[in-house]
Specification:
globular; 21% strand; 16 helices; Spore Coat Polysaccharide Biosynthesis Protein SpsA, Chain A; alpha/beta; 428 residues; 16 strands; 41% helix; 3 domains; Rossmann fold
Length: 428
């Protein structure tokens, strides 16, 4: 007999080793007092994701695929193994706070008709992500999204329905589509709806499953009291054109599966040429890159020359949010790693902190940004709660400040754009 637990967290990963490490760290903390399990399905990553999981998190169940099975199929591998009353399908490029999982479980228990729920998502710099709440892409809704009209006329409900922008971002509401990055689902419902549709390789499977949950008579909720960081498609970022093609194909699969063919004919005739056009552009770009590769390498090498770099590169001005001992280590590590950033000092987490190089406390962060003309803030995950970080960056999102995170192991600095490996300073 299978022992039922409260929650199964399923993470599908592909070549995002450093994002995955941060994600798992946050999930482990959030699930500390919850009867739960964490399942990682690796889609044949070429980096050291698997060895990292095995070394740092030996208690986590790791499934190593020998090829890239796609998101839907890999999710199903985890779902078939899951023993939780609830399942969370979570992207590896996310960071959740310490209370998020408990709050989601409590929410689902208090809403008996809730089949699934999503949360408020912020990007790596604290800006709200519209994907947090979406509508079913019925023919007209999908048409407005594909043509870009949903963005162009975002203030009009008729055009902006895809992201349900008529709903308040800060209020709990019923929505139609869960974001694939964070899908908190009542597992028993999957016995009615079935698992992910494996016809989808990337994109669309979240829309398809959400539609089936609603058709089964259950509700899907957007719950903004919980905020998470989603670095937003780090895997897809590496191949944007391929990702766009997969998105268009997913829209076609969904339309063909769920809608009357006559109704989605306009979409069909728009998407098909779009796929061919994007494929042609992709091929043209690759050919151009092959031809121009020697020249581009030459100009890139010129751009790295100090006197040229100094002309065009805006100097970085940073602060480190941490305790005193951690501050010293991070500062030395950044200096040793050759990171060109002027560190103005330390932002204290506690009011009574009396360490060196303090320029203020986290309650004064907005003033510190203005006074020191900061370009980036480095947070130590060893010293500050993820919930505090999420709250702080959501407040300063409009300031244009770059956010960087240092994990407890202090072996790298991660931001929404890149990962910088930190080297130990010489001791000899």
């Amino acid at each position: 007999m299978i022992e039922l637990i409260d929650l199964s967290v399923i993470i599908v990963s592909y070549n995002v080793r450093y994002f995955l490490e941060l994600c798992l760290s946050s999930v482990v903390k959030a699930s500390k007092d919850i009867p739960s399990e964490i399942i990682v399905i690796d889609n044949n990553s070429s980096d050291d994701s698997c060895s990292m999981v095995s070394t740092l998190y030996p208690h986590i169940r790791l499934i190593r695929n020998t090829c890239n099975e796609g998101f839907a199929r890999a999710c199903n591998q985890g779902l078939r193994l899951a023993k939780g009353e609830f399942v969370l399908l979570l992207n590896p490029d996310t960071l959740i706070d310490e209370n998020s999982l408990k709050c989601c479980i409590n929410f689902m228990h208090s809403h008996s008709l809730a089949g699934a729920m999503g949360v408020k998502m912020l990007d790596g710099d604290g800006k709200y992500l519209r994907e947090s709440k979406r509508a079913i892409p019925f023919p007209m809704t999908a048409l407005f999204k594909i043509t870009g009209m949903s963005s162009l006329f975002s203030h009009f409900t008729l055009f902006s329905r895809y992201y349900m922008e008529h709903l308040d971002n800060n209020r709990t509401a019923e929505i139609e589509v869960l974001p694939g990055a964070f899908m908190f689902i009542r597992k028993s419902i999957l016995g009615i709806t079935g698992l992910m549709d494996e016809k989808y390789f990337m994109y669309g499977e979240d829309i398809d499953l959400s539609f089936r949950i609603i058709k089964a008579g259950y509700k899907i909720y957007y719950y903004p009291e919980i905020k998470i960081i989603h670095f937003k498609g780090e895997s897809a970022r590496k191949s944007p054109i391929n990702s766009t093609i997969h998105f268009y194909k997913a829209m076609l699969i969904f339309a063909e599966k769920h809608f009357n063919k006559k109704k989605f004919l306009p979409i069909y005739f728009m998407i098909k040429p779009a796929i061919y056009l994007i494929s042609f552009v992709s091929l043209f770009k690759k050919t151009l890159m092959l031809i121009s590769s020697p020249f581009s390498r030459f100009f890139l090498s010129l751009a790295e020359l100090p006197f040229i770099k100094n002309i065009f590169t805006k100097p970085k001005v940073s602060v480190i949010v941490s305790e005193n001992d951690t501050y010293d280590r991070i500062k030395k590590l950044t200096e040793k790693s050759g990171i060109k950033s002027k560190i103005k000092g330390r932002v204290s987490i506690l009011q009574e902190d009396a360490g060196e190089e303090i320029i203020g406390t986290i309650s004064q962060l907005n003033e510190i940004i203005k006074e020191n003309r900061l370009t980036e803030i480095i947070f130590s995950l060893k010293d500050i709660f993820t919930s505090q970080i999420i709250e702080l960056i959501s407040r300063i999102a409009k300031s244009g400040i770059k956010i960087e995170l240092v994990p407890e192991g202090e072996n790298f600095i991660l931001s929404s754009k890149n990962v910088l490996l930190l080297k130990e300073p010489d001791t000899g």
